[in-house]
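User: Is it possible to get a 3D structure for a protein together with its bound compound? The compound here is pyridoxal-5'-phosphate. I've pasted both below.
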Amino acid sequence: MNHEADFPYPIARLYRQYHSYDLVIDSRLVGDPEKVLFFALPGQRRDGHEFIPALIRLGVRHFVAQRQQFFRHREAIARAVGAIRQSPPTVNLVDDPAATLRQLAALHRRQFDLPLIAITGSNGKTIVKNWLAELLATRYKVCSSPRSYNSLLGVPLSVWQLRDHHEIGVFEVGISRPGDMEQLRHILLPTHGILTNIGTAHLGNFSSQAELEREKLSLFREVDWLILPGRGELPHRAADIVEQGKVIPWQGEGGADMVVGNEALNVRFPDLPAVYLENARSAAAAAHLLGIDTPTINGIAGGFVPLTNRLEQRQGRDGGPVINDSYSNDYGALAAAISFAETLDPFDSLTLILGTVQDMPDLDIKLNSLLRDRIKRLLLVGTANRRIFSDFPGAVFYEDLTSLVEAIGELDFSGQTVLVKGASYEGLDQVATMLSRQLHRTTLKIDLTALRHNYRTYRGKLPDHCRVVVMAKASAYGSGALPVARTLEDLGADYLAVAYPEEGRELRLGGIKLPIMVLNAEAYSFPLLVQYDLEPVVHRAEQLRWANNLNLRVHIELDTGMGRLGFQPEEFHDLYAADKGMAAAAVASIFTHLAASEDPLHDSFTRQQLATFDRLYESYLEGGGAPVQRHALNSNGISRFPEAAYDMVRLGIGLYGLGDDSLRMHLQPALSLTTTVTALCDRPAGQTIGYGRRGHIEDDRRIAVISIGYADGLPRLAGEGRFAVRINQLLAPTIGSICMDMCTVDVTDIPGVTVGSEVEIFSPDHPIELLARAAQTIPYEILTNIGSRVHRIYVGE
Ligand SMILES: *Cc1c(COP(=O)(O)O)cnc(C)c1O
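Assistant: Yes, that's possible. Here is the predicted structure of the complex:
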């Protein structure tokens, strides 16, 4: 069977020519350039066609490009062709390279007659996929999607990995808009399915829960069986789409045993949080139906560990950054992690601690070309790596994790950026932890994936021409200016804004290239602005004169009702009418700030502010002023008054998922503040707890001491029971006063708390507003008061 006839001519021809090539859409993932077919895809920020010249110089010989875009870049491409001493590369011009990629993958899929399991659902897809692949590998040669490749681009790239020796495929599928699923089903043609769950969050582009659910289930229209959790109505609704007899619900709770369809299974799982137990059951049910026996399932499942997020960055013990990526370790994930680590490497000296890489054809050759010039120091861990050890002069080999852990105290990594990369089951996380500066301290975790999602959500509310200024003041709302700024630069933000010149300097020293406006710059700091290419906001006439003398680009702030900084209407009139320098100035923008954009009670005031802004600008134009860019909206302004976007907006708190209610459902909380339990004690009735004896024990209580105090940013107002932290998914109210470095909480009613248990102060599951309300303040103040000794960890690429 080859099905070529079902595909239009260019696809069948391309397939014949390229079926053994690597398909690549990210220029950083090129392995052996001669065996690469590069797809130039139009991106949000970087157009894939921009990379063609560099790739030609690298030796890539085959491209799929979009006709018009290709012609737009043809001169740079011709120069690159002129510079190489080979015949010109082959460029296949098409109307839609992404569609071509999908069709090639679909045709490739049809070359294989094997069971193919598709996994979708709101959460847990990647975990179920990884676990199921591990279970099936005990009996079959498995092809599974790399990392979390589950999108309209990820699925084709995953399917392309299928090769003749494979016996079974396991692929995850994610959708973001209506219609995606049909395209993905056409590519995958799954023979079996797993639905992990359907959550209520992140409806995104879907109008209702029911629509989202129907779309997800449509993936399974023609499968032989579909496994799903046997709760509620879901199995019945699934039967509307998948034939009744083919829907196989599983049941079970806790750490052992389950029922799959009507069959009891004596499985045992390790001690995992409840959500992971669900994922483990989905994987075990599928493995069972695919012929894996229960003892084997139990043997493998015993090693299931919860997967932390990918790519954690920490400050290292020896000074440089330590990056930990222990999600899955296939070639693509490794290449991506190296590229990522390079962007964070201030020393140009990358050390790699490498565990076992998932096997694939030509792995050794590929590793060789990937690591050779980019890794300065290589530590190989695990017997599987003995094979490649001799390929890398200077590499050090450790038989297993234990031998590395024993040696690690003696090793010195100063002046190096360390990337720790292994598969989750290898436990290399432990090495990353040992190499971090702070071990078990209070941590603010910043989820960069959520940040990206939120940025795009706001971006989606705005017209295309509108530019986005991201507010990076106060250390990016406490989350760390530089990593956040880098993420935003990468995402295509147009501008950054900081409050003070020093904050701008920090960003420049960290290599940020975006234009940066400084909201509050005094005259004495202007030379600093020149030195670091920063653009002041001016709100007094003399500031404008100084800026003109130094040729600085400026932003003019108008006060339309905020009553803080900004020219009053009549002052502004004087500024351009009685030439006080405005005509000569390099004015980058004129803006105003809304005082109550989030509050419907003040909407008429807000509209008045916007009308004043319009009126002032019109009279400025009538007075002969040159047109300039305008902006007025902060985060809640964007969600509530998108019609007043003008040319730019200024996004702040919303980036962290803390927008007003109108957008809240579509945002993802990006920040979690956590700490650990340091001591536990049973206290009898009558005792008191803490300073001033303010904690009263009425009846016997179990009290936990946790490692966070007001010096870390937990306000004293949160003490004495006005706030509860979250431990093991339950609430533990504070008791007694918050101290400087620690506080006490009541855990009497929470089973399973031990020294070392994780404590959530706020997180996606424990909203920061609870703490803000208890402390009689707003989330902004909570965030910006988080102490500097709190360890910031960035997760997500
Ligand atoms: C901080 C700030 C913003 C961003 O406000 P959010 O409410 O965090 O979105 C916008 N404009 C100015 C002038 C600011 O100072």
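The chain has five domains: 4-97, 112-301, 315-437, 449-663, 671-795. Residues 315-437 form a domain with the Protein-Tyrosine Phosphatase; Chain A fold (CATH 3.90.190.20).
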